[in-house]
Write a structure and sequence with these properties.
mainly alpha, 8 helices, single chain, about 0% strand
């Protein structure tokens, strides 16, 4: 979005990128020496380099890249419903869960147990509340 906002449609791609301080061709910007043992200049810049007229674009992109990534780890609604159904109908009996008709993907008992553990780790509070509600339902039935 930063590049899009600073883009000038009347100029070429190379001119726009040069004004922003970005490279059109990284091979030309940082050339790899053909002869082993010969080093490129220490700062990697060539003499006669164009002036950067829009340095704020690179600064904004660097700032955005330095921000921590938001963790959006969630489970699919289908998996949550599947795990809740299995626990509600079979409790801790994984072999019976594997034989259940809702086990569409034919998961083995160990695979079902892993899915339940993933659900427990992602939503520990929700899992505790769900188990507590199951216990109260069983008490009401008896």
């Amino acid at each position: 979005s930063h590049i899009r906002n600073a883009w000038d449609p009347s100029k070429s791609v190379a001119q726009n990128l040069a004004e922003m301080g970005l490279s059109e061709d990284p091979n030309k910007t940082l050339p790899i020496p053909k002869v082993p043992g010969v080093e490129v200049e220490s700062n990697g810049q060539r003499p006669g380099k164009k002036i950067v007229r829009k340095p704020y674009v690179v600064n904004e992109m660097e700032y955005e890249a330095s921000l921590p990534e938001k963790k959006s780890n969630t489970l699919s609604r289908d998996l949550i419903d599947y795990v809740r159904y299995m626990i509600q109908n079979h409790g801790e009996n994984y072999k019976e869960m594997a034989r259940d008709e809702k086990n569409y993907y034919q998961d083995t008992p160990k695979q079902i147990k892993r899915k339940i553990n993933v659900y427990k780790n992602f939503y520990p509070e929700e899992y505790k509340d769900f188990i507590a509600s199951l216990k109260t339902e069983k008490m009401d039935v008896q």
